[in-house]
Amino acid sequence: MEQRPLPGIGHAAAGGTRNLFFALQPNEDVRTAIAAEARRLAHERAPRGRWIKPHRYHLTLQFLGTHARLPDALVGAALAAGDRVRVPAFEFALDRAGSFANRSIPWWLGCSHIAEGLAALHASIATELRAEGCRIRHGEDFAAHVTILRGADRALPPTPIAPIEWPVHEFVLIDSRLGAEARHEILRCWPLSA
Predict the structure, then answer these.
(1) Cβ atoms 168, 92 nearer than 8 A
(2) What is the sign, positive or negative, of the torsion defined by CA atoms of 22, 97, 118, 26?
């Protein structure tokens, strides 16, 4: 397992808050394909809103909350949970676009069905987090998606797209800094078994 430093753990983020979550990050080919599909939807549908920059694309596996400062105990529990996950590498496809019915109307690319490997990874992380005493926010209602637009002026009905094949060889724990210093920082990366 690759270990990376944990800068700023336990300290408030300058100019904003922080989200902590387990995620998949697309490789460059997948990232490019997601960006191309987002551009196509922008051209065809012309929604107003805030398009997500491609370097921030990710698929959230487990969300561990929004914090003014990252709690040391929570980060430690998340790292310990991630260390115990044992799931083989897999592939899945993003094959539809849509939106969620909430205030910010996020548009996303997602899966018409959850692939077995993706479901196994999601469930394994949840199991290990529970073993560490963490509360799970994404249980049985896991909706695998990559957000491409926030604050849309209208909903996007379920729309089939050309499948974007996504090979998964690792998962990460991300400290997403919001506000003036917005960026994703990987706290640890775990490879999946071959």
Answers:
(1) yes
(2) negative
Measured CA to CA, the distance from residue 41 to residue 109 in angstroms comes to 11
Tell me the residue type at 75.
V
CA distance 168 to 57: 14
Spell 39-55 as b/e; 16+ CB within 10 A means b: eebeeeeebebebbeee
- 8 A C-beta contact, residue 34 and residue 26: yes
Q: Which two tokens stand for residue 88?
A: 């083989």
Name 90's bridge partners. Answer: 168
Q: Other C-beta atoms within 10 Å of 1: how many? A: 11
Whether residue 46 contacts residue 65, with contact meaning beta carbons closer than 8 Å, is answered with no
pLDDT tens track, the chain, 194 positions? 443 333 333 434 444 699 999 999 999 999 999 999 999 999 999 999 999 999 999 999 999 999 999 999 999 999 999 999 999 999 999 999 999 988 889 999 999 999 999 999 999 999 999 999 998 875 667 899 999 999 999 999 999 999 999 999 999 999 998 876 678 899 999 999 97
**pTM score:** 0.89
Are 95 and 163 spatial neighbours (Cβ–Cβ below 8 Å)? yes
